[in-house]
Amino acid sequence: MFPRSAFGHMMPFFQLSISLAKSGVKVSFISTSKNIQRLPKPPPNLSTLINFVEFQLPALENELLPEGAEATVDVTFDQIHAAATDFFGHPEFIVGEARERVRPSPESLTFLPEWVDFPSSLAYRGLETTGMFHGFYGSNASGTTDAERLHKIIQACKAVAVRSCLEYESQYLNLLEKITTKPVTPLGLLPPDQNQKGRDQITDESWINTFQWLDEQKAKIGCFCRVWKIDILVALRKPDWAADDVDALPSGFVERTRDRGVVSIGWAPQLEILGHPSIGGSLFHSGWGSVIKTLHFGHCLVVLPLIIDQPLNARILVDKGLTLEAERREDGSFTRDDIAKALRLGMVSEDGDKLRVRAREAAVIFKDRKLHQPYFDRFVD
Fold first, then answer.
1. pTM for the whole structure
2. Is residue 93 within 8 Å of 147, Cβ to Cβ?
């Protein structure tokens, strides 16, 4: 296992390592010393099957990487470059003249790819395109673009494994096999293990108080992110420009909203929050791991995609009637009224009934371990 140095990547790879070890497969998990120390400890009965291989990041000239930075959480946004998604098609379209023909400009990312031969909204919009185009195809400090790196990986690999299942996206999985010309193996969704660290093992006093607040709320009225009749729990990562947690919020915000919800800055026990009976929906960026966790509990989804594959995830979810995407302007801007409108529609309005029903129906698939285990067993074999 050699995940990208971002916890949105490392944790799924760690969970996959645990699943492989449970099947008797020995795993080498490769990352930096600091990142490995941040990961949870494997269960004692699996520790001999998971070998953590540490390496040191080299020092870079011109302060391209801040001292002590070993994961994306340690660096500012403009120092992060992301891998592409299957949206970018066959390897021959990723680099060279073929890429210049099909993807000549950021605007070219706003169209459904010519190789998607079924109805789909799979495309970027407006301001989303600029960062993705230049981040994927543009040069960076490594001397190798992300597009070139992905091209080499696909060309060199013997097969592609995807955390997904046919019940969710059979057309996209079949297309992926066609465009990569490699065997594609769905791993299943690897539903989160609800026997993992539970609420009773949380020692952070602020989160103990937060869960006590959740206990006092009516079932299914809270949104993991109070609009109208909705109480909220906001989990926020401190922005890089903020001097401290207080600086990250408008002056007096916590005091003004104290009777309406809870604001927490920093790490959040996501699985335990989403599993609480008072949570009925989630407003988030539509990262794939969070999609899996949220639909596992059948919650209403309201998404505000920001970067990389998040807009594409959002478009597929909307196509399937599983989420509501908050409205934004062409320049990517939005207002509090846009967010309030989306939350009201998704969480409490009659017009959102179908969305909430579909989310509950999706939970039947997303949380079914018996459905997903055969996928994983075939991968192990």
1. 0.83
2. no
Asked if residue 226 has pLDDT above 50, the reply is no
pLDDT on residue 82: 25
The CB density around residue 140, as the number of other CB atoms within 10 Å, is 14
Pair (124, 273) in one structural domain: no
Does 158 share its domain with 265?
no
CATH number of the domain within which 276 lies: 3.40.50.2000
Joined tokens for residue 270: 């996501």
CA–CA gap between residue 352 and residue 345 (Å, rounded): 5
C-alpha dist (Å) from residue 123 to 109, 140, 281, 319: 6, 24, 25, 12
Q: Tell me the per-residue pLDDT of 64-80, one tens digit each, with 9 for 90 and over.
A: 555 555 555 444 333 32
Q: Are residues 76 and 92 in the same domain?
A: no
- 3-class secondary structure, 364: helix
Beta strands in 133-219, from DSSP E residues, in sequence order: 160-162, 184-186
Q: Give 55's strand partners.
A: 32
What count of other Cβ atoms lies within 10 Å of the Cβ of residue 242? Answer: 14
Q: pLDDT tens for residues 311-323?
A: 999 999 999 999 9
